[in-house]
C-alpha cells in the first residue's frame, strides 16, 4: 500500500500543466484527488473536478466545501493556480497588478482559509504552494509576476509558522521554466517558435526545460508523510538554474 493511500488532496489549477501532473501523480500514489479549476471539464476519473475561480471568494468557499464533503475531508492542499505577466513596472497598469496579485497571492489565501478547518482535522495535513524561481531570481521583464511569487514565498513561510503547532506543514516548490501549455502559449507568440524554444533550452543549465512531472514529484514528496519534519521550505526544481554559477562557454 502506498503511503498516500487514503489521503485526500485538493489541487487548484489542476486541469493543466504542473497542477494536472500533480493531481495525476497523487492519484497514482493512492490519494483521493479533487481538482479546483476555472475549467475542470478535462479532469478524468478517478479525480473529481470542481469549477471555481480562486479570485472569487464565494466560488472558492463553495468548491472547497463540496470537495471536502465528497472526499470526506482534506489532508493535502496544493495551491497551484496562477497566471503570468510580462514587463517592467512601466508596462503593467494598476488593473493588471491587482488582477495578478488577486489570483497568485490572494487565491492562495482564499483557498487556504476555506480548507483550514478540514486540514486541522487531518492527521497528515500539508499545504504545498507553487511558487517560482522568479520569487528570488531578479528576472528581467517580470516585475509583476516576480512580485507576486515573492509574496507567495513569504506567505508560505508565514503560514508555516502560524500553523506548525496545529500539525499543518506548509512548503512551496520553486519551478524553473517548465514544459506546460503556459510555456507553449508564450512560445507560440514568438515570430519563430521553434528557434525560440531552442534558445530557451540552451539557456537552461541542463540544456532542457523542467518537466511538469518533475515538479509534481517534488510537490508529492513535500505533501507526503515522508516529509513529516519538513515545513517552511522552498524546494527549487529548476535544473540548477538558481544554485549553479556556470561560466559562459
Ligand atoms: P497552466 O496555464 O498550464 O495551468 C494553470 C491552470 O490554472 C489552468 O488549468 C488554469 O485554468 C488554472 N487557473 C488559472 N487561473 C485560475 C483561477 N483564477 N482560478 C482557478 N484556476 C485557475 O500553467 P502552469 O505552467 O502549469 O503553471 C501552474 C503554476 O506553476 C502557476 O502558479 C505558475 O505561476 C507556476 N509556475 C510555472 C512555471 C512554468 O514555467 N510553467 C514556472 C514556475 C512556476
What labels would you give this structure?
249 residues; alpha/beta; seven-stranded parallel β-sheet; two-stranded parallel sheet; 8 helices; globular; oxidoreductase activity; NAD(P)-bd_dom_sf; EC 1.-.-.-; SDR_fam; SDR family NAD(P)-dependent oxidoreductase
- Indicate the low-confidence ranges by residue numbers: none
Please tally the helical runs, counting DSSP H or I stretches of 4 or more residues: 8
What does the radius of gyration come to?
A: 18 Å
Helix content: 40-55%
Distance between the termini: 48 Å
Largest sheet: 7 strands, parallel
Task: Provide structural commentary.
By secondary structure, this protein is of the alpha/beta class. Helix content is 44%, strand content 16%. It is built from eight helices and nine strands. The protein has a seven-stranded parallel sheet with strand order 3-2-1-4-5-6-9, with helices on both faces. The longest helix is centred in the middle third of the chain and has 27 residues. It binds nicotinamide-adenine-dinucleotide. Nicotinamide-adenine-dinucleotide binds next to helix 1 and helix 6. It is an enzyme of class 1 (oxidoreductase).
Short description:
Belongs to the short-chain dehydrogenases/reductases (SDR) family. The protein has 249 residues and is an alpha/beta fold. It is built from eight helices and nine strands.
Amino acid at each position: 500500500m502506498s503511503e498516500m493511500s487514503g489521503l485526500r488532496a485538493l489541487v487548484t489549477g489542476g486541469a493543466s500543466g504542473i497542477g494536472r501532473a500533480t493531481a495525476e501523480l497523487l492519484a497514482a500514489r493512492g490519494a483521493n484527488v479533487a481538482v479546483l479549476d476555472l475549467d475542470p471539464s478535462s479532469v478524468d476519473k478517478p479525480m473529481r473536478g470542481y469549477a471555481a475561480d480562486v479570485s472569487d471568494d464565494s466560488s472558492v468557499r463553495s468548491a472547497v466545501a463540496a470537495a471536502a464533503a465528497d472526499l470526506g475531508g482534506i489532508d493535502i492542499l496544493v495551491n497551484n493556480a496562477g497566471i503570468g505577466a510580462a514587463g517592467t513596472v512601466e508596462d503593467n497598469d494598476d488593473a493588471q497588478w491587482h488582477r495578478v496579485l488577486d489570483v497568485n497571492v490572494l487565491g492562495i489565501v482564499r483557498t487556504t482559509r476555506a480548507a483550514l478547518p478540514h486540514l486541522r482535522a487531518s492527521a497528515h495535513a500539508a499545504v504545498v504552494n507553487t511558487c517560482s524561481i522568479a520569487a528570488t531570481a531578479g528576472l528581467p521583464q517580470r516585475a509583476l509576476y516576480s512580485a507576486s511569487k515573492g509574496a507567495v514565498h513569504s506567505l508560505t513561510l508565514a503560514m508555516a509558522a502560524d500553523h506548525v503547532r496545529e500539525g499543518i506543514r506548509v512548503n512551496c516548490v520553486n519551478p524553473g521554466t517548465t514544459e506546460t501549455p503556459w510555456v507553449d502559449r508564450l512560445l507560440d507568440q514568438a515570430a519563430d517558435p521553434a528557434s525560440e524554444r531552442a534558445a530557451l533550452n540552451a539557456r537552461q543549465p541542463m540544456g532542457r526545460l523542467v518537466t511538469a512531472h518533475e515538479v509534481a514529484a517534488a510537490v508529492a514528496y513535500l505533501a507526503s508523510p515522508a516529509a513529516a519534519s519538513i515545513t517552511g521550505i522552498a524546494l527549487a526544481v529548476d535544473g540548477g538554474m538558481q544554485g549553479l554559477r556556470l561560466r559562459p562557454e
